[in-house]
Specification:
Strand 3 and strand 4 form a beta hairpin. The chain has three domains: about 90 residues, no CATH class; about 55 residues, no CATH class; about 60 residues, Arc Repressor Mutant, subunit A (Orthogonal Bundle). It is built from eleven helices and four strands. About 50% of the residues lie in helices and about 10% in strands. Helix 4 crosses helix 5. The strands form two sheets. The chain has a two-stranded parallel ribbon. It has about 240 residues and is mainly alpha-helical.
């Protein structure tokens, strides 16, 4: 095992090479059993300048499991609160479209009602239905709405009135997606097409928007994932 990582990191290699060699030649060589490398809140790296190199490195580690016995000991568990496909254009270098994917599904109306009960019924039955219409059972948005009203930070009326505002109850989440589309003209164009015509001509672009949780199919139509997204992006996107 390398005793001084500072000396190891000063070797005349690129960061990806140093990291890969350290894991393969030192960590995995020293182990008798498997190693699970779990990373939570991976989305915090999506804005890093080195994100493509980093995620490409993880994909290369995964690929090495097929040909190198030592790397078969390594398993990766990546947890993210948003789908990364809209940010990683070359899916062949992405670690997110291989292995087993466990996807958190939207809440059903019955599940939202159960959560509302556990929060002390901050929403009446009509409010529950309106919340489902607004966020479509989105787990994070549903949970945040219930928390904000139950903790009396907002009334039910204030939550719905301010839902699509930049500084409203869901502003951080909405801006997160908006900012990540701004420099990708093809995504903006496709999202505007969804908003105006309920279609998306490019299937690959549809897949990226769907994987980001922004759109869904409704029969033959392509629609925003929920009313909140439709209202917000209608206000902020320009072709």
């Amino acid at each position: 095992m390398v005793q001084d990582l500072r000396d190891y990191w000063r070797r005349s290699l690129g960061n990806i090479q140093r990291c890969t060699r350290y894991v393969g030649r030192h960590l995995l060589r020293e182990l008798d059993g498997p190693l699970v490398l779990a990373m939570d809140e991976v989305e915090s790296l999506f804005e890093a300048e080195f994100r493509s190199d980093f995620f490409g490195m993880l994909r290369a580690w995964h690929n090495s499991r097929a040909t190198k016995p030592r790397w078969k000991r390594l398993d990766l568990a990546l947890v993210t609160s948003t789908e990364p496909y809209q940010l990683i254009e070359n899916l062949n270098q992405s670690p997110f479209n291989v292995g087993q994917i466990l996807e958190l599904q939207d809440f059903s109306a019955a599940q939202v009602a159960q959560l509302n009960q556990k929060h002390g019924h901050p929403f009446n039955p009509a409010g529950e239905r309106q919340l489902m219409e607004l966020v479509g059972g989105h787990p994070y948005l549903s949970r945040k709405a219930l928390y904000l009203v139950a903790s009396k930070q907002l009334t039910v009326a204030e939550l719905f009135d301010r839902a699509a505002e930049d500084r409203g109850p869901f502003g951080d989440h909405l801006r997160y997606h908006l900012f990540r589309m701004y420099d990708k003209a093809e995504l903006v164009k496709a999202m505007l097409q969804v908003l105006k015509n309920r279609t998306c001509a490019d299937e690959k672009i549809f897949f990226r928007l769907q994987s980001a949780g922004l759109v869904r199919r409704e029969g033959e139509a392509v629609v925003p994932h929920c009313l909140l997204y439709a209202d917000y992006f209608q206000r902020h996107l320009r072709g």
